[in-house]
Amino acid sequence: MSSPKSKSALARLGRDMRAARLRRNIARADLAVRAGTSASTIVRLESGDPGVGIGTLADVLVALGLIDRLADLVDIRHDELGLALAAEKLPQRGRTFASTLRRQKKKGETKSASGGAEVNPDGVAF
Questions:
Q1: What tens digit of pLDDT does each residue of 2-13 get?
Q2: CA pseudo-torsion sign 16, 19, 25, 26
Q3: What dihedral angle (degrees, nearest 10) is formed by the CA atoms of 42, 43, 49, 50?
Q4: Cα–Cα dist 69/1, whole Å
Q5: Kind and range of the H or E element at 113?
Q6: What is the pLDDT of residues 28-44, one digit of tens each?
């Protein structure tokens, strides 16, 4: 069961894909052959059917020359909520390298928590 927002977004996607196909003067059957699917799947995709697989969508976008747009769907650089939540989790103050060394010596550790590299007192990681 799709939500009303997702239904309208899929319907808009279908309309836009149909418009892109028509601008290129490509028949549904030809697009289906190029994308490796059936003409009925193209009809379903253009009508906003949520049951069409994302792989099929990607194949159709390749056939239309629009595959680069697929990666832009969830571009984390434009995720305002995610960026705000990540900013809230940032530490209020940073740690000095000396305090990190003291903590590691106290615990008897020779490896840093990030990747297992040994810490050199000169500030070089191996």
A1: 789 999 999 999
A2: positive
A3: -10
A4: 26
A5: none
A6: 999 999 999 999 999 99
